[in-house]
Amino acid sequence: MPPLSKKRKACIASTAKARKALRQQDSEEELELDHEGGLGGADSDVADSDVEEELVIEEDALARLMAIANSIDSDSEEPHFKYQRGFQQSRKTLYLARKKQGDLQHAAANTAKITEFFTQPKEPKATVIPVTYCNQLQLAIDDLKALFRSKHAPIGQNLTRHNMVLLFIQLQLGKPQESRRSLSLFLAEACSYSEKMARRIRSWTDSWISSRYIRVGMRGSSLKSQAG
User: Fold this and answer.
1) C-alpha count within 13 angstroms, C-beta hemisphere, residue 200
2) What single string gives the DSSP state of each residue in 17-34?
3) Which among 175, 173, 199 has a CA at the least distance from the CA of 188?
4) How far apart are CA 149 and CA 168, in angstroms?
5) Distance between CA atoms of 50 and 56, rounded to whole angstroms?
6) What pLDDT is recorded for position 205?
7) Fewer C-beta neighbours within 10 Å, C or N terminus of the chain?
8) Which residue has the higher pLDDT, 18 or 125?
9) Angle, to 10 degrees, between the axis of helix 180-190 and the axis of helix 157-174?
10) In sequence order, which ranges of 75-90 are alpha helices (DSSP H)?
11) Could you tell me if 23 and 15 are in contact, meaning their C-beta atoms sit under 8 angstroms apart?
12) What are the tens digits of pLDDT across the range 23-69?
């Protein structure tokens, strides 16, 4: 091995010194870290105790809040606050509500109520025939029956007319609530006649009540005559 030169020896010496200095720095840093680690453990214990105290305080506050909520729920009345305000509508809201109600009442003033569409129809009242008219009808019946028993009793179509009048007057006395038109139509339909015969029955009846005369039919009296 060749001998080292002075320059080489000086370089090796400086390198060794630098390594030694680095080792010293590393050892000092390790000591500082160990020292800080011991202090940090104490600080962590203190921090853990503070967290536990905070948890205890929070649990106490939660228990108080739960107790207050239970007491409010158990009371029947609502909690009353010193400066509690009730519900109060504004003037504009009240004005609009009154205006809407007035418009509804005005619109419903000229309309029929819904109850009018569901009312049951009233039964027609029985019409009472005056006593004087009843007496006239009864006298007309008696006179017709007397005519049938006499020697001058009508025959043929004239007998049919007198019988129609007799039946019509009896119907008026038996059903005073019905109108003369409805009774005459009922009698005409029962005898297989039309509404024209119902009008003739009413005219014959009026003639018999007023003058005791019914127009005599001219059917069959001559070839050119028609039933009147």
Assistant:
1) 18
2) HHHHHHHHHHHHHHHHHH
3) 199
4) 20
5) 10
6) 93
7) N
8) 18
9) 130
10) none
11) no
12) 777 677 677 666 655 544 445 454 455 555 555 555 677 777 777 77
- What is the maximal distance between C-alpha atoms in the chain? 196
Distance CA 155, CA 5 (A): 186
Question: Which tokens in the block code for residue 34?
Answer: 């160990």
Going by C-alpha positions, the residue among 209, 125, 194, 132 that lies closest to residue 184 is 194
**Which of helix, strand or coil describes residue 162?**
helix
Q: With contact defined as beta carbons under 8 Å apart, do 218 and 228 qualify? A: yes
Side chain identity at 55, as an amino acid letter? L
| pTM of the shown model | 0.43
At 9, which amino acid appears? K
Angle between helices 180-190 and 195-211 (to 10 degrees): 120
Q: How far apart are CA 220 and CA 227, in angstroms?
A: 8
Q: What is the mean pLDDT of residues 163-171?
A: 93
Dist CA 145 CA 139 (whole Å): 10
